[in-house]
Amino acid sequence: MGNKNTAKNKKEQSSKILRNILMIVLVTLMLTTAVILVIAKFNNVNVIDTVKEMTQQLPFVKTEEEADEKQNDGILENRVIELQAEIHEKEAEVNQLQQQLDTSGDENEALLLEQERLLAEIEELKLASDSTKQQQSEIIKTFEQMSAKSAAPVITKMSDAEALQILSSLKADRLAAILEKMTPEEAAKYTSMMTN
């Protein structure tokens, strides 16, 4: 048992010595730090700024500013890429709209040309219609002046449409006289056509 006590005492003594050494080192460090801070204060040196500057000069320490700059650069780079993509998209839309506008312009030109052609054709048809009406009016006058005996055979030789047009335009007494000079079958045919 004696051995255990001496071993225990030796252990306690070595731990006390270690504690005392640590205390001395700690107290020395604290006193040294205090003295350095007092000297720095008298020399108007800002210790915190000086420590920051020293740490910034270390190659393995990144400053917050550098980190922020890199982060901002990354954000700006991403935004530039987004904006460029948006510009390309808008340019494509503008090109598509320009093509639609060009197509619409071409279609409008074609429609205007077609409209002009149709208006010219209508004018020609009006002129032709006026001419035809004048010719028809002259033909009808001629048939009104002809004798019924002469007019009946001429009408029967015409197409049904022409004959019907002339017969429909004649006065009732003149029509009756011409129908009398036709065969009963022909007179019935033209009468039937005029009533339909």
Keywords:
196 residues, mainly alpha, 89% helix
User: What is the number of E strands?
Assistant: 0
Uncertain stretches: none
Helix/sheet category? mainly alpha
Number of helices: 7
Order of helical and strand elements: HHHHHHH
Q: Kindly report the oligomeric state of this protein.
A: single chain
Share of residues in helices: over 70%
Distance between the termini: 151 Å
C-alpha-based Rg, rounded = 61 Å
Strand content: under 5%
**Overall pLDDT, averaged?**
86
Largest sheet properties = none
Shape: rod-shaped
Summarize the structure.
The protein has seven helices and no strands.
Strand-helix topology:
Blueprint (H helix, E strand, L loop, with lengths): L1 H41 L4 H10 L7 H82 L2 H10 L2 H10 L2 H9 L3 H12 L1
Helix pairs in contact: 4-6
Please explain how this structure is put together:
This protein is mainly alpha-helical and 196 residues long. Among the domains are: 11-60; 146-196, no CATH class. It is 89% helix and 0% strand. The protein has 7 helices and no strands. Helix 4 crosses helix 6 (172-180). It is rod-shaped and about 170 Å long.
